[in-house]
Target: Siderophore-interacting protein
Amino acid sequence: MLVVRMEFVSKATLKSTLDKSQGRTSIKVAVFSATSITPHIRRLTFVGNALEIFAKGGPAQWVKVFVPADGGSRSIGRAYTVRRWEPETHTLTIDFTLHENPGPVSAWAASAAAGDEAEIAGPRLSHLLRPVAEWRLFAGDETALSAIASILEALPPTDQPLVFIEVPTPADRQSLTAPHGTRIQWLIRSEQSASPGELLVDAVCSKLFPSGDGQVFLAGEARSVRLMKDYAACLISSDSIDAKGYWSIGRSDYRD
Model:
């Protein structure tokens, strides 16, 4: 049996341990479990008593995950959306997207196992969910699945959002918890030989938005998100659009 050992320190010590590059608290954690839930998503659950100071700020919040690099002489970090935070057990779950040409953190996640250590800085709030909206539309690729899933779980039970999710293959679809009236359309790139974001742009930009006070969330590959945002801005107020480029084709460590 593998025993995950963590160093126990006081809250005061934790709060004074800052990641200087971010000006934020850096929390030491260890991998508790690692599971490939789809061909392109690796789910890691982290534990550590340091997580007792982790504060849940709402759906689609994000953290920065730092992993060892250059043989452990330094660390490198990337931003990831929190999939689930369970304060009762101090466990934090993050889904890592596995790209064809992985960056340093996703490469680490692909082979991470129980007991492997990392550091987490954050969290930060990403999406401001309106308590009431006459309609909602969410669109994203596989990198946005955690954000969309956490937003759906936070919606009022009477909501009936329309959701477009683009993934590489049929096996990358996930079972999502959402209000009963939710309409989810999975867009499969491999079935149409499509490039990343292509099917999302086609789906969103061919949609006539309903009248009334709506809310739109768009996330995924940066160029595709910009195209969808420009289209949506022609139909509704920009204040009702939350658009985030999570990555960009041909660029590493993209920042929107």
The chain is about 20% helix and 35% strand.
